[in-house]
TrEMBL record:
It comes from Microbulbifer bruguierae. This is YciI family protein. Pfam families: YCII (PF03795). PANTHER family: BLL7171 PROTEIN, BLL7171 PROTEIN-RELATED. SUPFAM superfamilies: Dimeric alpha+beta barrel. Residues 1-114 form the YCII-related domain. Belongs to the YciI family.
């Protein structure tokens, strides 16, 4: 089953890291992806640029509105994601625990669902 691991941390705290600390964390993330790939658990993923580069799009009454920045102010910001293949939620949690930025924030683990032409359960509660 596929699980999305959403990586969150406080961007303000991360901005205070030295270049050496930041580079070391990124090397850890690269090594984590290599390990997850070699074990067959890694599907895809990507770090994200800071929320200052975000744009939020909404459609209401057939009108598109665009706002600079993220949708909501939060203590931790979405920093990236890993799409994982795992037997079950317990294995997905164990894999998410190996993601290095979890030390600085959190990793939200959510099962992914297949989008079908018909028979999708209302609200996306299939699983």
């Amino acid at each position: 089953m596929k699980y999305l691991a959403l990586v969150y941390y406080d961007e303000k705290l991360m901005e205070h890291k030295s270049q050496q600390e930041w580079d070391a964390l990124n090397r850890e993330c690269i090594a984590c992806v290599e390990d997850l790939s070699s074990s067959g658990h890694y599907i895809t993923g990507s770090p994200l640029l800071p929320t200052s580069s975000a744009t939020t799009v909404r459609v209401r009454d057939n009108r598109v509105t665009v706002t600079d920045g993220p949708f909501a102010e939060t203590k931790e910001q979405l920093a990236g994601f890993y799409m994982l293949e795992a037997r079950d939620l317990n294995e997905a949690i164990a894999l998410a625990g190996k993601i290095p930025p979890a030390r600085y924030g959190s990793v939200e683990v959510r099962p992914a669902r297949e989008l079908m032409d018909t028979d999708n359960e209302a609200g996306g509660n299939a699983g």
